[in-house]
Amino acid sequence: LDIITPEYHEWRDAARDAQLGAGAEGQVEVMGLTGRLEWIAVMHALVQGVQSGVPSSLVIALAVLVVSTANWLVALLATATILGVMSTFFITFVASGWVLGMYECMFLQLTAGMAVDYTVHLAHAYNESAGATKEIKLREALTEMGVSVLSGAVSTLGASVCLFVCSFKVFYLYGSFIFFVILWAILWALLFFPAIMLTVGPAGEAGDIKIFRAIQTLLSGAAPAQVEPDSLEAVPDKPAAEVETKEGVLQS
After folding, report:
1. Helical ranges in 96-133 per DSSP H
2. Crossing angle of helices 169-187/72-95, nearest 10°?
3. Alpha-carbon distances, residue 9 vs 43, 49, 51 (angstroms)
């Protein structure tokens, strides 16, 4: 933008001066023949989309996590992990020598969506665990979702590697974006997130938002209680040979 924005304004100023210079003789219509101005305008809009889209995605992710988990502390720590994933990817983007082009701007707006996946699964499993301590909740979350999260990351990384050999630049860039975003996402989800949850994560009802928790309980409903038969009359028909009850075996 530091290069193309001044050029865009120069062309706009030149067009305005040409129109003003026509005076009363007639209106001058300025036209671009190469499409350069249109390309600059599109790039300017795409870069602005990245600048506004990435922060907006983080805010929306935090709001969704707060509502879905009904725990502000779990949502905040998960969002901090997602922010770490995106920050690390942006460092990789700069270190790789990439510059903001049309494809890069479009792909950058997708990073937030791909970065949230694994952390959100582990956060949800941690939040839904009935463990009394942070250690138990974290162990259950990793046991329940760890293998699935890791398997999903490995399969996605393998699929993105196939795009590295494509001759079209758009496919190569897309594969590179997917590979590095997923790589950092799984590392942050399996290394940083468990560590921070074990350090400052909530246990019991800590961090719960009562109104959201009540809504979740109301929407989920209560499972109907199963009543076991405690008499011979409640037992289905059986031959008169033998009927088993809680008290033992009654011989007929």
Report:
1. 102-108, 111-115, 117-128
2. 140
3. 14, 20, 21
> What is the CB neighbour count within 10 angstroms for residue 209?
17
Token code pair at residue 142 = 């990793």
Q: Which residue has the higher pLDDT, 21 or 86?
A: 86
CA angle 86, 89, 91 (to 5 degrees): 115
83, 152 contact by CB (below 8 A): no
* Residue located via tokens 């937030």: 112
- 61 Cβ neighbours under 8 A, 6+ residues apart: 79, 82, 112, 116
CA 250/CA 252 separation, integer angstroms: 6
Q: Which token pair is 12? A: 């706009």
Q: What is the 3-state secondary structure (H, E, C) of 46-73?
A: HHHHHHHHHHHHHHHHHHHHHHHHCEHH
Cα–Cα distance for residue pair 94/100, rounded to 1 Å? 10
State the amino acid at position 8 in one-letter form: Y
Strand 248-251 and strand 242-245: pairing?
Answer: antiparallel
* 51: Cα separation from own chain's centroid: 18
Q: pLDDT per residue over 158-209, tens digit each?
A: 998 988 888 888 888 888 888 999 999 999 999 998 999 888 878 777 767 7
pTM of the model: 0.70
